[in-house]
Specification:
Blueprint (H helix, E strand, L loop, with lengths): L2 H15 L12 E3 L16 E3 L2 E3 L3 E3 L10 H14 L2 E3 L4 H5 L3 H13 L5 E6 L8 H11 L3 E6 L1 H6 L10 H11 L4 E5 L6 H9 L4 E3 L8 H11 L3 H9 L7 H9 L5 E3 L6 H9 L4 E4 L1 H9 L1 H20 L6 H4 L4 E3 L1 H9 L1
Parallel strand pairs: 4-5, 4-11, 5-6, 6-7, 7-8, 8-9, 9-10, 10-11
Antiparallel strand pairs: 1-12, 2-3
Helix pairs in contact: 1-9, 2-4, 2-13, 2-14, 8-11, 9-10, 12-14, 13-14
Protein name: Isopentenyl-diphosphate delta-isomerase
Catalytic activity: isopentenyl diphosphate = dimethylallyl diphosphate
GO biological process, one term: isoprenoid biosynthetic process
Length: about 350
């Protein structure tokens, strides 16, 4: 199996077996102000929202995780079927392996998502560095591969810097993102991969015409840490040390959400989001939706029902947060009162 595909399998194994979690999203220091007299019925709260004109039952995104190795087909099938059943959005992992390899088993690890979720909002995924190699036709091929409703372009340059085989040429990527955003047949989401997006970067992306920003901030799964484990396994000790040094690098998710929402009207908050309460806080900070990745990985290995159960739990957590803030709709939640404390407040003050 070629290198790109094998790397996808390595990533899943390391996430499942090793300690690759960091703290510090900032959500623990964001407190929604309690409404003791909400004057609404909890079961009549409307959690629905829209994303690029597509209605979601709740502002929940199953974040880009996997695809590109036959071992991941089962996981993507379960995730997609659950997205179909619950009416939430889902992204696939980088489609580079599907575009570069002529392998039906690899391709199926991606195409399975539309087969399992004919009506769900699905988005594809290519790397910003790969845009320097691909033309617009290649990106359209990624759209066609899963009949995508949108395309994510991921920014993962710290991860690439830790990989012994990483692509560390970031020159010209913004111009290519602007080109794709202008010409692609579906909306373009630019997403980080665990290190966050600052206010200035969000402004540059907004000016480039991207349709949404997924902040994927610091505080959840650390791809620097994942690549450190991979580097150590092949004897690349210097790269492994770099990965550990930058393990907790980045803009905290809560800060990144607030800053990006000040520059763009469609922000997805991800990076250490672990509950419906975190999603509620993110929406109060200005996000359109909240995304989770690692929490879905274990349930996906058990099957669709386990993923659905987790989504329904997150939905109830979100609904409860809306109830006790007096928010009858997601629009109301966007104006819910909150306070920022501790390091998050200090970070924002320094900014």
């Amino acid at each position: 199996m070629p290198e790109t595909s094998d790397r996808k399998d390595d990533h899943i194994r390391i996430i499942e077996d090793e300690d690759v979690e960091t703290s510090g999203t900032g959500f623990a220091e964001v407190e929604l102000v309690h409404e003791a007299l909400p004057e609404i019925h909890r079961d009549e709260i409307d959690t629905s929202t829209t994303l690029f004109g597509h209605e979601l039952e709740a502002p929940i995104v199953i974040e880009s995780m996997t695809g590109g190795h036959p071992n991941t087909t089962k996981l993507n099938r379960a995730l997609a079927a659950a997205a179909q059943e619950t009416g939430v959005a889902m992204g696939v992992g980088s489609q580079r392996a599907g575009l570069d390899l002529e392998d039906d088993a690899v391709l199926e690890s991606y195409t399975v998502v539309r087969e399992a979720a004919p009506d769900a909002f699905l988005y594809g995924n290519v790397g910003a560095a790969q845009l320097l190699e691909y033309d617009i036709g290649d990106v359209e091929a990624a759209v066609d591969m899963i009949d995508a409703d949108a395309m994510a372009v991921h920014l993962n340059f710290l991860q690439e810097a830790v990989q012994p085989e990483g692509d560390v040429d970031a020159r010209g990527c913004l111009a290519e993102i602007e080109h794709v955003a202008d010409r692609l047949s579906v909306p373009v989401v630019v997403k980080e991969t665990g290190n966050g997006i600052s206010r200035d970067t969000a402004r540059r992306l907004a000016d480039a015409g991207v349709d949404a920003i997924d902040v994927a901030g610091q505080g959840g799964t650390t791809w620097s840490g994942i690549e450190s484990h991979r580097a150590a396994a092949v004897g690349a000790d210097r790269q492994a040390q770099i990965g550990q040094l930058f393990r907790a690098w980045g803009v905290p998710t809560a800060v990144s959400t607030l800053e990006a929402a000040g520059e763009h009207d469609c922000v997805i908050a991800s990076g250490g989001v672990r509950s419906g309460l975190d999603i509620a806080k993110a929406i109060a900070l200005g996000a359109r939706a909240g995304g989770l990745a690692k929490p879905f990985l274990g349930p996906a290995g058990k099957g669709t029902d386990a993923v659905v159960d987790l989504i329904e739990t997150i939905m109830l957590e979100l609904r409860t947060a809306m109830f006790v803030t007096g928010s009858e709709s997601v629009t109301d939640l966007k104006t819910a009162d909150y306070v920022c404390l501790g390091r998050t407040r200090e970070y924002l003050d320094q900014r």
